[in-house]
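pasting for the record
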Amino acid sequence: MRVLVTGGAGYIGSHTCVELLEAGHEVFVIDNLSNGHEIALDRVRGITNRDLQFMNADIRDAVALDKILNTFKPDSVIHFAGLKAVGESVANPLKYYDVNVRGSISLLAAMSKVKCDNIVFSSSATVYGKPQYLPYDEEHPTNPVNPYGRTKLIIENIINDWTKADTKRKGSILRYFNPVGAHETGQIGEEPIGIPNNLMPYIAQVADGRRDHLNIYGNDYDTSDGTGARDYIHVVDLASAHLNALQSQKILNNFEILNIGSGKATTVLELIKFFENAVGISIELRYLKRRDGDLDIFWADPSKAMNLINWQPKRSIDKMCKDAWRWQKNNLIGYA
């Protein structure tokens, strides 16, 4: 297939491009590089020994989108492009609605013009909000507690309506949990711009000496050790889920929602201990008060994805830590 990947120069997008190319698909990436790196795509080419096309553009740019879709003529789109920092979304919600929601509408409008009828959307478990029961399954009520999560749910609903308007259209929604790790080559990984919002890159930056300690927000949660517990999934497993969803769309419903996670929860302290054991470096810790909106514990029930798209998470927490550290050691100043 010819696959357009929005946000393909980012963390999850670049790993998904590797999976797509290795499976024999043609890839065109559109990314405005606000949170991605063009050199990551060069490394994707090196890992796979295959080429891909790239345009530095914003999906809100209708002219650029029309040009790509009319020339590349994709069979399908995998949609990652968007902003993703929860705290920033609370501070600047209009920016998130503009980039995430308006960008997705622009993308679907451009797809409609050229009769590109298939989209896989990279959504988030944040759409569920506070758990009414655990693990989260796809039937769990949705009630996101921050603007970022609300933009994801709005986009899901827009895609649902888009598929209902034409029975030839397919929309697959992947609600994923906490991606960590890196490609085992150490060539591509997570390089946050500025201070990391996610736990694993922050741990790795403490381990390499870039930061002197790790802040843990809260140690009084209702978990085994008092720290928050999350469902962590290796980024390559997550990338393979996008590939499997894409390749399974013919047998899926016109609109399908799938949870992508490991199916278990790991606390912050447990993840740190795994990392310390994997790399042999102690992580200095400081405890701060809880952040508003943080949940005690959550994890996914990924059985629907396992059954429908023949996918399962294969890589352990230990593997996630070792791969994240290999990436960090090989790229002490990131892609620069």
